[in-house]
UniProtKB/TrEMBL annotation:
Source organism (scientific name): Psylliodes chrysocephalus
Upper lineage: Eukaryota, Metazoa, Ecdysozoa, Arthropoda, Hexapoda
InterPro entries reported in the protein's UniProt record: 7tm6_olfct_rcpt
Name of this protein: Odorant receptor
The entry's keywords: Cell membrane, Membrane, Olfaction, Receptor, Sensory transduction, Transducer, Transmembrane, Transmembrane helix
Keyword Transmembrane in record: yes
Single GO cellular component term: plasma membrane
Length: 397
């Protein structure tokens, strides 16, 4: 018996599977993280603690302006704090809305959608395993990067340690306790909390691509049937044939509109959060590169190199999902161009023109056109990081 997509089962139920959705394991992993780490009191407390720490950093820099530590260390730590703060601020209030969209997305498959064929299921399962391996690699190397960062942290230049020393009046016991709170509880909680939303967004993107592919497969079947009856002129003019075309076109239109509405709804929820996380992530990656360039010891460079590689890999996964949605929309439009519309009656041709009109512009996830999730985003990311490093180099000189 299939489990339902109810919020109660998602938040409090056991991990479950849904055989018609090969990417459902992403939702399972993300909901496991949410059930573990989304206690509202804890999340809001950590959010306000980040605000206090950012204020303390500003006050400390006003009192001791760059007397200790390097600019790159200060910028790197501050960018991490801002990234975590934006994560909590943007997503805590949208927790329930995310799962409402998640519930509506499931209906497109199990209520309105058509089942895919066996060959497509095998191909999709193979792709799902590749994504599972990629996500596992990201998780492992993220823990490695964080562990190396904590182990090789320089207490003489780390801005958080310096601020904590100032707050505790250089008392070692107080410093140890606050360091454990920062690096043992707050930051791991933030990384896992942020990772849950990244994983859930990957699920949404891949599921949209999956739904578009199933719709394109239905169009391919209809195009193939038209070719099979190419020589039967009497069948073209029959009411049975025209009625079949009408029913199919109504389904194509309705399903595509449902997918578009679901994607637009998700985009409305996700766009500002993605924009803020992207901008803070770019700054964080830029400061990581600066740290790699300025650090002399190979031992101290290692955490930054691993972290930068993980960040690039995460951005690559996200942009690739957006690019796949774009590709599926373009192929869907081209596939619909193969319909033998000259055999159809006037009413069916009008339905076809409507389908052409709504599929002419591909679907995409974007934030007011400022950032669009596709492969061009990676090019823009490299340019922004390069500009950031160049600007820092000129300021340093």
């Amino acid at each position: 018996m299939k489990k339902t997509f109810s919020i109660k089962n998602i938040i409090f139920g056991k991990l479950h599977t849904y055989e018609d959705d090969p990417f459902f394991w992403m939702a399972d992993w993300s909901t496991l993280l949410f059930r573990t780490f989304h206690q509202e009191i804890i999340s809001r407390t950590i959010f306000w603690m980040y605000n206090v720490l950012l204020f303390a950093i500003v006050v400390y820099l006003l009192i001791y302006p760059f007397n200790t530590g390097t600019i790159s260390d200060i910028m790197y730590t501050t960018s991490q704090m801002v990234s975590f703060q934006l994560c909590y601020g943007n997503y805590m209030s949208k927790f329930g809305v995310f799962y409402e969209s998640f519930q509506n997305l499931g209906k497109l498959t199990k209520v309105y959608g058509r089942p895919p064929n066996d060959s497509f299921k095998k191909e999709t399962n193979r792709i799902s395993h590749i994504w599972k391996l990629s996500v596992t690699i990201v998780i492992v190397f993220s823990f490695v990067a964080y562990f190396l960062n904590v182990c090789f942290m320089n207490d003489d230049t780390n801005i958080l340690v310096l601020v904590v020393k100032g707050l505790t009046l250089n008392r070692p016991k107080g410093l140890l306790g606050i360091n454990i709170l920062l690096y043992g509880i707050m930051m791991p909680h933030s990384l896992l909390f942020e990772g849950a939303f990244v994983l859930l967004s990957l699920y949404f993107n891949l599921h949209f691509k999956y739904l578009l592919r199933i719709l394109r497969e239905s169009i391919e079947i209809m195009v193939g049937l038209e070719k099979d009856f190419d020589d039967e002129i009497e069948y073209w003019n029959s009411n049975k044939y025209q009625k079949h075309i009408k029913n199919e076109m109504k389904y194509f239109l309705a399903q595509y509109i449902r997918i578009k509405m679901s994607l637009d709804n998700f985009n409305e929820i996700y766009k500002m959060g993605f924009l803020s996380i992207t901008l803070s992530g770019v700054v964080e990656m830029g400061t990581t590169l600066v740290s790699i360039v300025t650090v002399d010891s190979d031992k101290n460079i290692l955490p930054f190199v691993v972290y930068f590689g993980v960040a690039i890999f995460i951005f690559t996964l996200i942009t690739e999902t957006g690019e796949q949605i774009l590709i599926e929309c373009e192929q869907l439009y081209l596939q619909a161009k193969q319909f033998r519309w000259f055999q159809w009656n006037k009413e069916n041709r009008q339905l076809l023109w409507m389908f052409y009109f709504i599929t002419q512009k591909p679907l995409c996830l974007s934030c007011y056109g400022l950032i669009t999730i596709n492969r061009r985003m990676m090019v823009s990311l490299y340019r922004m990081v390069y500009s950031f490093v160049t600007c820092f180099g000129k300021m340093n000189n």
